[in-house]
């Protein structure tokens, strides 16, 4: 697929669990549906 130079936005939620003064765990929940909708090609027109 050729580059289009179109901008996209990407969101995610990141949660960190701190233990003492260090990050013990990280959970990431990306919004992949929104990203895929932006980068997917438009559906082809249906033939009648």
TrEMBL record:
Organism: Streptomyces caledonius
SUPFAM superfamilies in the record: NTF2-like
Top-level lineage group: Bacteria
Pfam family, one: SnoaL
Name of this protein: Ester cyclase
